[in-house]
Amino acid sequence: MGERTSGFWMRLAGLAGLMLVAACGDREREAETPVTETTVRAAQTEAAPVASPTLAAVKRRGRLQCGVNQGLVGFAYNDNRGQWRGFDVDFCRGLAAAIFGDPNAVRFVPLSAENRFQALTDERIDVLWRNTSWTMERDTGGHLAFAGINYYDGQGFLVRRSLNLNSATELNGARVCVQAGSTSALNAEDYFSSRGIEHRAVVLPTEEAARQAYGREDCDAFSADVSALAAARTTLADPQQHVILPDVISKEPLGPVTRRGDEQWTAIVRWTQNALILAEELGVTQANVEDRAKNAREPQVRRLLGAEGDFGPRLGLSKTWAADAVEGVGNYGEIFERNLGSQSPLDLARGMNAQWNARPGGLIYGLPVR
């Protein structure tokens, strides 16, 4: 009994020694291959992107299906030649350029506020780029994924100058036109009820119907996003006889929406939008993008435009995805000025939609490509 026990403990000690030697050898081998930023980056680059069923469907179809407003000057509308124009339209074209290298490889699907989300859920569109506010209810409802914010807005009031109003608090007893299926009616109700102001909501099925009702004087005020009010004013018979009151009663962060469950596609939409924002910050324009892609020395510009790294392939796109998007539609600032700013009938100031490092600064901030 004693001899067998002694032998057992000797064999156990020998086994423990072998395990210790093996562990030391493993530590020595690990020490021979130190973990550095280069090895981490190489491992990340080698990781294959998760396949996106939406991207696959878009490529099979040969074009992007983009949901837009039915007609909102500055954002999405048909010009007198029947061509789609606008801020949201240009972001759709930029996404098409990032995927196909062709900003025209897109079909625009006009949608009302009430049917926009169903069109996305039913896969009639690939992305919704229709002045849509990012709210908690929409974000946590289980079907939608917001890819980012490309315009910071707020709800206001359009009234006739002849009323001599200085504030929305003077709208006691007024008839206020709002659009169904949007956040406008709830925001107006919250604003007036919290101040004990009586009003009557006149709810119309579309933004155009609300605008026309206001034009017919079926209501005393039209309440919507300030950018939409600026667009509506340009369509009235005498725009100078209407004024947007200074009150801004809500926060309306607008941006593109995708279907939840296809994270890779949401990333493609997010980073294409971000590339257009970052291009403005880095001074990359539609006119100089080709030259900057070839000759830029700044690492952040070279990464953005595909001269360094494989950021496009990580999304399932080409290395020049961002350069293609900028070449197709210009950077964020160019898109803004052309459709909403000084080069447009709306003539809106950048305000909150200025770059974060502008003077004065705004809320537009490009995420780093690295």
From TrEMBL:
According to the entry, every stretch annotated as the Solute-binding protein family 3/N-terminal domain falls at 63-292
**Could you confirm whether the keyword Nuclease appears in this record?**
no
**CDD domains xref list:** PBP2_BztA
Q: Name one Pfam family in it.
A: SBP_bac_3
Key word Signal present: yes
- Assigned keywords, A-Z: Signal, Transport
Q: Its family? A: Belongs to the bacterial solute-binding protein 3 family.
Protein name per Swiss-Prot or TrEMBL:
Amino acid ABC transporter substrate-binding protein
- From which source organism is this entry? Brevundimonas staleyi
